Amino acid sequence: AGGPWEECFEAAVQLALRAGQIIRKALSEEKRVSTKTSAVDLVTETDQAVEALILSELQERFPSHRFIAEEAAAAGAKCVLTPSPTWIVDPIDGTCNFVHRFPTVAVSIGFAVNQELEFGVIYHCTEERLYTGQRGRGAFCNGQQLQFRETDLSKALVLTEIGPRRDPATLKLFLSNMERLLRTGAHGVRVIGSSTLALCHLASGAADAYYQFGLHCWDLAAATVIIREAGGIVMDTSGGPLDLMACRVVAAGTREMATLVAQALQTINYGRDDER
Ligand code: IPD
């Protein structure tokens, strides 16, 4: 039998699949691209249309719930996580990939109650893979249960994302962090252009650790539930507990590996989502 938020979870799955269909179709079409916080922070009409679709349907079905969503935040809405049931939505994660037709693009819908993440739904639009996690009930990809693969950092495949800033100081820190990770003996570092799908790769055992500075709560909310339910750890780069609004994260199969990754990193300060 379903838990108390089963109806919400089902709604998230249906909307992610519908949004995915729209994104898949739009991927090969011409796009009008605008920029947000930097010249490489992109948005298209499809991001906005898909977010409007998801939010309007959810608002109609769950009028008392609250919403945090990427394009609403870009338009000035505050990102505040209260105890109320809250949907945390990224209509297209991997917008830069989407613009370039690089087929690594996802819809991400997370849901929190009492500031605790209850479920996450991430849809890989081009590969048609639906990742889900519900607190206490496991993580799945197209119905198959996900389980972390445990390994040492010295044998790990590590994923990261660049983040939106390109000023020389940030780039220097970003590259130096990558060098520090490679010096641990990790087998490799990959950048695929989507934080949420990178985290889903960890949960499916296709990669072993993830770190990033400069991502947002909507990149993290759904994926965090999926990682935890697959047996993994999501934490702050300080080594402390995850802070959804802190724009930074480390994830791995074990606390030991996550801690080693965190210790290798120098902080890149991107501020907080709830202080913009
Ligand atoms: C971004 C992507 C990118 C990561 C950024 C995210 P968006 O999400 O996941 O790879 O580096 O931090 O914000 O803007 O495409 O939804």
TrEMBL record:
Keywords: Hydrolase, Magnesium, Metal-binding. The keyword S-adenosyl-L-methionine does not apply. It catalyses: scyllo-inositol 1-phosphate + H2O = scyllo-inositol + phosphate; D-glucose 6-phosphate + H2O = D-glucose + phosphate; a myo-inositol phosphate + H2O = myo-inositol + phosphate; alpha-D-galactose 1-phosphate + H2O = D-galactose + phosphate. One of its GO terms (molecular function) is protein homodimerization activity. Pathway: Polyol metabolism; myo-inositol biosynthesis; myo-inositol from D-glucose 6-phosphate: step 2/2. GO terms for biological process: inositol biosynthetic process; inositol metabolic process; phosphatidylinositol phosphate biosynthetic process; response to lithium ion; signal transduction. Gene3D superfamilies: 3.40.190.80, Fructose-1,6-Bisphosphatase, subunit A, domain 1. The lineage of its organism: Eukaryota, Metazoa, Chordata, Craniata, Vertebrata. One of its GO terms (cellular component) is cytoplasm. Its EC number is 3.1.3.25. Mg(2+) binds at residues 70, 90, 92-93, 219. Belongs to the inositol monophosphatase superfamily. It holds the Pfam family Inositol_P. This is Inositol-1-monophosphatase. Its cofactor is Mg(2+).
